[in-house]
Amino acid sequence: MENEYLDLPDDPEEGFAMLHRRRYAELEKVWESGDGNSGWHHERQYIDVMIAFDEVMGLNFLEGLKPVPNSDSDFSDYWQGFRRQVEITSQKILIEAARRHKAGAQTIIVFDEAQRQAIHHLIQKIREHLETAKLTDAKREALFNKLNAFAGEVDRNRTRPEAFYAFAVETARAAKQVNDELKPLQQTIDKVFDWIEKAKKFAEALPPWSDRKKIEGPRKQLPAPERQSSNTADEDEIPF
Q1: How far apart are CA 229 and CA 182, in angstroms?
Q2: Per-residue pLDDT tens for 33-56?
Q3: Which residue has the higher pLDDT, 178 or 95?
Q4: CA 182, 185, 187 angle in degrees (round to 5)?
């Protein structure tokens, strides 16, 4: 007999939700056929499977629903509460999985106020470099537009860094023509990338919904990027 658990998702929580969907669909077929009118055998079998999976995977979603009543007279109310709990839990798991999948399609990072100030300080340094660089007016305006788009993103609760990536690519193209002048600018750009990379790693480490049952404490301050050893490091030093 084939092991029905082999084709479940590797993530235990998603496996729980998909097993519920599969087993509950089988129950509904039993009810439609009329085979389930003789007792609670099929419902008890469904419960046994879900509790076994919950225990083996260490999820503890159903810990508060044990033990299962032996008496059929007590089972009816228990069954209604059990299937409702499993359905709500499964929907939360699937919603969270969809949220993470969609978030992965486009990077979203979160800065606190101190980090925003630090990045705005670096953005101002970049503006100063652009003002003095030997660029055509059209090229300078294009770079400013992309930089300003990122500056606007930094002030949002959830920041999308794609605008800064576009600015960095455009700057790299311009550097082919005025390479020496844009070297200090590139070093400042690298510092912004340091902040983005640290924030992104922090966002990816956020726990799933099942680990957020308690109120979260204050977030820890992210460490500042390592200082450059070049001569321009002092110029770009953040004043706090």
Answers
A1: 17
A2: 887 566 899 999 999 999 999 999
A3: 95
A4: 115
Q: What is the 3-state secondary structure (H, E, C) of 138-196?
A: HHHHHHHHHHHHHHHHHCCCCECCHHHHHHHHHHHHHHCCCHHHHHHHHHHHHHHHHHH
Contact 197, 144 (CB under 8 A): no
How big is the CA angle at 124 (ends 123 and 130), to the nearest 5 degrees? 90
* CA 127/CA 185 separation, integer angstroms: 9
Q: Which residue has the tokens 């930094």?
A: 154
Start-end of H helices in the chain: 12-33, 41-56, 72-105, 113-132, 137-154, 162-175, 179-204
Six token digits for residue 88: 């709500």
Determine contact, residues 50/23, Cβ cutoff 8 Å: yes
Length of the chain: 240
Cα Rg, the chain, nearest whole Å: 28
The CA distance from 48 to 67, in Å, is 11
Q: Output the six-digit token pair for 144.
A: 């400013």
8 A C-beta contact, residue 148 and residue 96: no
Q: Are 236 and 125 in contact (CB under 8 A)?
A: yes
What residues have CB less than 8 Å from 58, skipping those under 6 apart? Answer: 12
